[in-house]
């Protein structure tokens, strides 16, 4: 069987398992948080009370939606899903002692990771993107805003979140294939390394996914606190073409390294 035919077979096998697994319940809870917040804001607006104020000024629905994209999806939800799903693609098979059944099949071992990665990507995109659309339709018209005026930005947001899921999933798929306790490493990278590095000047931020994602967000970054002002002073976002190239290189490079690690590494199953 060819490499990509084998990857498609693994994709078919893994997609249904992911959609109906306990992790999918966790995924639904995570992406349901912003929907609940948007629903509460909508209910508050029905009673003629502003859902959100900044410095005493009533903000528009477009501002609120951009804020949720910035801080809930890009900085929290997308990295969390990448960590918990990406690191488990191979680690769960090792922990459950089922990886032997996959490796004894007449298929390239690297195709196992690629197929499971594609299943992860399909699973998360099918759940996260509808959540973003629900949030948009709930909050876009708040404060006298228009749903139609921000539709182009919504499409950009959907593509950006899909790119973020792809990049983070590839990074942590490689971590899960290479390391024995990948979840801890993934959490430290996503919420330790990236949080610190993107906030300070220098070239280290080019080794983070977050640096390229935040350069592509179509909404202006809120700057209502001293920390945000300090970060905007130091921030030198890369141009759009470099951000897109960076995400492509990270995704393809980490996925290739992960497939190579699966092909070469000997997995010892604990008794």
Helices and strands, in order, run as HHEEHHHHHHHHH
Which strand order do you get reading across the main beta sheet?
1-2
What is the helical fraction, as a range of percent? over 70%
- β-strand number: 2
Question: What structural class do you assign from the helix and strand content?
Answer: mainly alpha
Large-scale geometry: globular
Mean pLDDT value: 83
Count of spatially separate domains: 1
Largest sheet: 2 strands, antiparallel
- Low-confidence segments, given as residue ranges, are 224-234
Please give the count of helices: 11
Residues in β-strands, percent:
under 5%
Rounded to the nearest angstrom, the radius of gyration is 20 Å
For the record, give the distance between the C-alpha atoms at the N and C termini, rounded to a whole number.
32 Å
Please describe what this structure looks like:
The chain is an all-alpha fold and 271 residues long. It has one domain (3-264). It is built from eleven helices and two strands; from the N terminus they run H-H-E-E-H-H-H-H-H-H-H-H-H. The protein has helices at 3-19, 22-46, 61-86, 88-95, 99-103, 109-139, 151-178, 182-197, 209-216, 226-234, 240-264; strands at residues 53-54, 57-58. Strands 1-2 form a two-stranded antiparallel ribbon. Helix 6 packs antiparallel against helix 11 (240-264) and helix 7 crosses helix 8 (182-197). The longest helix is centred in the middle third of the chain and has 31 residues, at 109-139. The relative contact order is 0.14. The model is unreliable at 224-234 (pLDDT under 50).
């Amino acid at each position: 069987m060819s490499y990509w035919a084998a990857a498609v077979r693994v994709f078919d096998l893994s997609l249904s398992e992911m959609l109906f697994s306990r992790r999918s319940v966790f995924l639904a809870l995570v992406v349901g948080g912003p929907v609940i917040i948007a629903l509460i804001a909508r209910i508050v607006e029905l009673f003629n009370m502003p859902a959100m104020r900044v410095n005493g000024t009533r903000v528009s629905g477009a501002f609120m939606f951009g804020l949720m994209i910035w801080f809930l999806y890009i900085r929290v939800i997308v990295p969390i899903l990448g960590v918990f799903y990406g690191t488990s693609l191979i680690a769960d098979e090792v922990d459950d002692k089922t990886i032997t059944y996959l490796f004894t099949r007449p298929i390239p071992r690297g195709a196992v990771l690629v197929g499971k990665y594609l299943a992860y990507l399909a699973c998360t995109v099918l759940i996260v993107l509808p959540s973003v659309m629900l949030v948009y339709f709930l909050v876009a018209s708040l404060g006298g805003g228009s749903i139609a005026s921000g539709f182009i930005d919504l499409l950009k947001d959907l593509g950006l979140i899909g790119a973020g899921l792809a990049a983070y999933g590839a990074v942590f798929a490689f971590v899960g294939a290479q390391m024995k306790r990948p979840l801890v490493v993934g959490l430290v990278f996503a919420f330790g390394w990236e949080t610190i590095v993107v906030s300070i000047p220098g070239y280290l931020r080019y080794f983070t996914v977050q640096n390229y994602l935040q350069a592509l967000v179509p909404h202006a970054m809120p700057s209502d606190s001293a920390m945000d002002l300090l970060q905007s002073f130091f921030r030198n976002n890369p141009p759009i073409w470099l951000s897109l190239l960076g995400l492509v290189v990270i995704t393809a490079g980490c996925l290739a390294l992960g497939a190579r690690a699966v092909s070469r590494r000997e997995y010892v199953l604990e008794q």
